[in-house]
Amino acid sequence: MHDTDITTYLQGGCRCGAVRYEIAADALPPTYACHCLDCQTWTGAAFSQQFVVREEDLHIHGPLTLFELTPPSGRVSRQRACGTCFTRVYNTNSARPGIAAIRAGSLDASDRLQVVAHIWTKRKQPWIILPDSVPQWHEAAPAEQLFGVLGVSGEVLRRAEPKN
Length: 164
Ligand SMILES: [Zn+2]
Ligand SMILES: [Zn+2]
Prior knowledge:
About 15% of the residues lie in helices and about 35% in strands. The protein contains three helices and ten strands; from the N terminus they run βββαβββββββαα. The chain has helices spanning about 35-45, 145-150, 155-160, and strands at about 10-15, 20-25, 30-35, 50-55, 60, 65-70, 75-80, 90-95, 100-105, 115-120.
């Protein structure tokens, strides 16, 4: 790549390879871990790990299947998974239009990611010892605080503000 190019393309995909994506970015994204019970159930693991990008920067190919979940809050969560192997790849939420939360383990370079925030630590599994230096929230973090730690720009947040 020419050294005047600041944008690179991060790549990732599902377990079977049918779904692949590229993300326009200038660096590896910081990630956060959610230790809530829903994430433990949904991932089958101790916590979920994700990062956020502008949906317009995500280019995805392959047989995506959609699962919509509307919790009592009324904020519709739209989960996209590979229609072949059912790897959950990313989701959007009606509370934050224009932002996609990508399952960090689907990134090809997942071994180089850093976790910069932990949320729902009151439900974390007891064997997980978190470093004191990493910001933590007992429950959900206010979006502007979490996005601040993740370095999501004010411009992205303003574009993603709820319309109603
Ligand atoms: Zn797949
Ligand atoms: Zn969670």
